[in-house]
Amino acid sequence: MILWAFLVVITILLITYYKITSKTPDALKNIHTITLFSRIFLTITKQLGHDTLYFRYKQYFEKDGIVKERFRGKWTCMVTDPAIAKDILSKQGAPAFRALPLHLFAETALKMIDILETIDKKPIVIDSFMQRFTLDVLGKVAFGFDFNNLENPNSVYVTAYNEVQNAILDPLALFFQIDNIPILRQHRLKKLTKLNNIFIEIIKEKRKALAAGKSQGDLLEHMLNANENLDNQILSDNELKHNLAVFILAGHKTTATAISTILYLLSIHKNVQEKAREEVLRILGDNLIPSAEQHKSLKYLNMIIHENLRLYPPATFLQHRESAENLKIKDFVIPAGTPIEIFIYGIHHSPKLWTNPEEFLPERFENKNATIENYSWLAFSSGARK
Ligand code: HEM
Question: Which residues are in coiled coils (predicted)?
Answer without folding.
Answer: none
